[in-house]
Amino acid sequence: MRKLLLVLLTLPALHLFAQNTLNIKVRDAATQKPLSGASILVQGYNIGGETDSAGLLILREVPDGEHTLQCRYLGYRSIQRNVTLPLTADAQVVFSLSEQEEELEEVLIRSTRSSRSIADIPTRVEAITGEELEEKSNMKPGDVRMLLNESTGIQTQQTSASSANASIRIQGLDGRYTQLLRDGLPMYAGLSSGLSLLQILPLDLKQVEVIKGSASTLYGGGAIAGLVNFITRQPEAEPQLRLLANTTSAGGLDLSAFYSKMLDDDVGFTLLASRNSGSAYDPANIGLTAIPRFNRLSINPRFWFYFEENTTIQVGFNYSKENRLGGDVDYVRGNSRFGYFERNISARFASQVQIDHTPNKRLHFSLRNTINRFSRILNQRQFRFEGAQLASFSELHGRFRPKSNQELIGGLNYQSDHFEEGTRQTLSNPRTPRILNIRNFGTFVQYTWSPNEQYTLETGLRTDLVQGYGAAVLPRIAALYKLTDAISARINIGLGYKTPTLFTEQSESLAFQGITLPSADSLNLERSFGINFDLNYRGSFKLPGLSKEISFSWNQLFFYTQLNNPLVLQARTSGTTYTFANLDGDYVTRGLETNLKFSYRKPWKLFLGYTFTDARSRSTGESVQLPLTPKHRLNSVLMYELEERWRLGLEAYYFSPQGLGDASRSPAYWICGLMGEKMWENWSIFLNFENFLDTRQTRFGAIYTGFINNPQFKEIYAPMDGFVVNAGVKISIL
Predict the structure, then answer these.
(1) Residue 103 has pLDDT above 60, yes or no
(2) Position 158 in a domain
(3) Would 6 be classed as within a structural domain?
(4) 185: part of which helix (H) or strand (E)?
(5) Given 162, 174, 651, 731, which residue has the most CB atoms within 10 angstroms?
(6) What is the DSSP string of 524-582?
(7) What average pLDDT does the structure give for the chain?
(8) What does pTM read for this prediction?
């Protein structure tokens, strides 16, 4: 049966080469300890990977002949070794790396469908990896809001005052313009809306990749502001079991486990399981929850099947179920039968399948699919909304490297989205259940060319046929120029689009009530133009009185996005029903991001960031600032890290006044945090004082008008939960 399946999966190749398996080990030259996460590249081939927790890496499908292997690791000097294959039986290639003061950003990036490192791709990609990922995950182990919110140019915006729902904003554009991916597959959009960020767990993440600016050529509609790709861990040579327990002063509890093992030479397995809960929390004593009572269960098993040495199949599914209840504290706690409430009951079941086949050193094919069913009940005091969304995404793409300095990627994809509203209705609001179907078929091609070590050019073209709306043609160009090893520049220019949908931040704030479905008969696609330009410099300097140099890096980004005919929700004359329309105008966001990083003697690191965002709506000759977007934002983090012993961090974030929908402005505010972690060989404990200045919107004024049993909430521009302490333990058993 296995042989038959292999034959069916194997695609014809023009040339066949003898294949080898290469065993590699990377260690610290001084301590001889293994280095996890070191990147290995076979120069001239699309072959590479990263070492596991034991410092080991197995490279498959390496052809016979002489090859140059390049080994890179953060904070260590890169080295190269020449090997001639085949090697003798059981031979192992060992790299011993020496530390250096300046850290290298040599992270393999997957969001561009290439295997290039972050320093060698024309597309600007930010990667959250390693210690940074661990440190941010300690602050909020139950979801990824904190992980993203502390990056320059990104803001996680709370959209519900009582249920703590949240969405992501990149460069001033709201959440529907950002694609959230899991291993390159779209799984979080549409009906899930403000619940998506709350239901993504960080424990199994290997890295998080962020592309800011239009990425629609790469992944289709919806990536106008950018995309976030959550890359998960794969089975490693050594089994791994990670356990996490976390509790908060606000009554939260997180219990998570991640298990990874190679069951035999041909089968790998990972499992993520988590149970998260919270209690009704009202730090302002106003009788309304800032954090709702909730319970969530998540499970994600995945299998890897390795056929011979050139075909891999990944199969997995994701299941989660959550019940969130916010509103009147007495009602939520069961002390009253009456009062305002907002209940979200949701369930997700998603499957993932990916088949990768590499017939020879130049060709690689990938077929992947996800089917995602998400159901949701949103129940408030006066009405009830329920519905289910069935979404699917399928993609076939191929990668061809005619020469070592050229790469051609092309593919096809089909995406469908079917939403159907439930038939149960409130007597006071009878209506015909709404049904929405969106389908599109896309083709894309991307060509990357490096004429020399200084220049790399990347061009792309995507054409999507969107049912009812016609064709969207999306060209894209990106370029990388390396003036020296320390100085480089990138430019990215591209078009994007977004298909009109019921699920926006505006419609969710109305609990989707009284809203007419968007129709292709009266609406057009939202279309965009975007350009990013950034400069990078890396160097070092020495101050009087210091024994060693301070290494630093600087990244300066300039961005501009114009979104034509954006979708807006307009009230009809009755004031209780709404319809979508294309604004006769545009949204324009422009600004800059500055990122500075300083390192001294390994333990000390200082991160400084500044974001300037001018986001405006232009229509009928008027230009007004888009609401809930601070023009100025400062990020600062000071870290002290003794490897495998201590990790201490102090952070401060500044938000300038934000424009609000009623033409008023919010006050400016600071958010500060302090965290620490003590590490031993197989376990650690962590303690985090989040927002210890107790900054919250209730300190600046009332958050609602009317009566508490029927509140009309104001826009949310600041934290609602205030000062929260969390503490926990992480254990690695295997």
Answers:
(1) no
(2) yes
(3) no
(4) strand 185-186
(5) 162
(6) --EEEEEEEEEEEEEEEE--TT-SSPEEEEEEEEEEEEEEES-EEEEE-TTSS-EEEEE
(7) 89
(8) 0.86
